[in-house]
Write a structure and sequence with these properties.
heterodimer; A: alpha/beta; six-stranded mixed β-sheet; four-stranded antiparallel β-sheet; about 30% helix; B: mainly alpha; about 65% helix; elongated
């Protein structure tokens, strides 16, 4: 079976000239469909950089990086956008729009071409909010929700368009133990239901047990496990 | 006037213009007595009064045939247009006003750009989230465009009221005739819209050129 993500010999640099610093050193990694991969490592190790490269949010500088079979090295903006649409992204901060209700924030992931909404979107958004246990909070503004609830809205937003890959960057960093665990278990359950792999960057050891595979990255090098 | 005693027989209301501070209406005999340097053959503008029922275009064509080539026979509306064009295009005043309006437009673009750019910078991570979800530049442009439209309308209404007050103030202070007509107001609204959308486009360029990952 073709891996969802296939990374081969990726190098990445920040800065120019004498200030140029290598962030990733020849990283190679495959992620199979349905697999939950945890990426750990100290801050500055390059794990978030790798995640944003996979999410087509950063230009690939050296090496081969295929997502859903599409080569992202030298990819045009149009292809990058097409790949992004098939990914559900969960950030460290929930990044919800404060002037939209929870449901409208989730719907935002559905209408990618039009600003206008429709009833079908609303039903989908409500269904996925119910799946994360927030059916009663659907019409509330993000400011009135707890941080755990906000992150669950963000998870609902990342899942509502049935992505084929979930990327999560420190999703539990802003949460206490209980809501952090609840969030990752929710992600795991929904991902397994949809058969969608997860690449999760974290240095939160409390959530290690949800992983199928744990990778460690240090100084931009993937350590053998 | 000019060492002649004149008696004023009546008053009429007409403001100052760029060429004269005041106006006096008199017969051509009196005019030639007061201004002896003018030859009776030197006529700048003459008025033809038509009999009721006469056909103005036909009379105009007939009179034009009788006149030398350097005489223009025009109707009232055309005279107004000719005067307007003269002041607008052939004198320094018109140029200064056009330049002033143009500068206002450019300064407006810069100010609105600053406002929109600050607005985008304050919500950068939210814009980056939209990009990460795969939203297109068109979608972001629609959002910034909506912000620009709100700015435009909010700025236009008080701007229009202030302009109207300023017009009245200028009119009472200088006696220059000032009119803020519908055409002018609509044209300014159009320019304000253009100004806001151009600024919005510029402000969004910053967002387009960066890697989305650098925006969080």
């Amino acid at each position: 079976m073709q891996p969802t993500v296939s990374i081969a010999g990726v190098n990445h640099f920040f800065g120019d000239g004498s200030g140029r610093k290598q962030i990733l050193h020849g990283v190679s990694l495959d992620i199979a469909p349905g697999e939950i991969v945890l990426l750990t490592g100290p801050s500055g190790s390059g794990k978030s950089t790798l995640l944003t490269l996979v999410g087509a949010l950063r230009t690939v500088q050296e090496g081969a990086l295929r997502v859903f079979g599409h080569e992202l090295f030298g990819a045009a903006a149009e292809l990058q956008r097409a790949v992004r649409r098939r990914i559900g992204y969960i950030f460290q901060e929930h990044n919800l729009l404060p002037f939209l209700t929870a449901r409208r924030n989730v719907e935002l992931a559905l209408h990618l071409e039009r600003v206008a909404s429709d009833a079908g979107f609303e039903a989908q958004a409500r269904a996925v909010l119910a799946a994360v246990g927030l059916d009663a909070e659907a019409d509330r503004a993000p400011a009135t929700l707890s941080s755990g609830q906000k992150q669950r809205v963000a998870i609902a937003r990342a899942l509502v368009h049935r992505p084929q890959l979930i990327l999560a960057d420190e999703p539990t960093a802003a949460l206490d133990r209980a809501s952090g665990l609840q969030c990752v278990q929710l992600m795991r359950r929904l991902a397994k239901e949809q058969g969608c792999p997860i690449l999760l960057v974290t240095h939160d050891s409390r959530i290690h047990d949800i992983a199928d595979r744990i990778l460690r990255i240090e100084d931009g090098r993937l350590l053998p496990m | 006037m000019n060492n002649r005693r004149l008696s004023v027989r009546g008053l009429f209301h007409l403001g100052a213009s760029f060429a004269a501070d005041g106006n006096l209406v008199t017969s051509h005999e009196n005019f030639l007595r007061v201004v002896p340097s003018r030859m009776p053959s030197q006529i700048d503008v003459g008025i033809l009064l038509l009999e009721p029922g006469a056909d103005p275009p036909a009379v105009r064509a007939a009179v034009q045939r009788l006149m030398a080539d350097d005489v223009m026979v025009v109707d009232r509306a055309e005279l107004v247009r000719l005067e307007h064009d003269f002041w607008q295009n052939s004198t320094g005043i018109g140029f200064v006003f056009t330049l002033g309006a143009l500068m206002g437009f450019v300064v407006g673009i810069v100010i609105v750009y600053q406002i929109l750019y600050t607005e985008i910078a304050n919500h950068l991570s939210q814009y980056a989230t939209l990009i990460a979800m795969g939203h297109s530049q068109r979608f972001l442009l629609a959002i910034v465009g909506a912000a620009a439209l709100i700015l435009c309308v909010l700025g236009y209404v008080p701007g229009l009221l202030m302009s109207a007050a300023l017009y009245r103030l200028t009119e009472s202070a200088t006696f220059l005739p000032m009119t803020l007509g519908l055409t002018k107001s609509v044209a300014v609204l159009g320019l304000t819209l253009a100004m806001c959308f151009i600024s919005g486009g510029f402000a969004l360029r910053k967002l387009r050129d960066a890697d989305p990952a650098d925006l969080f």
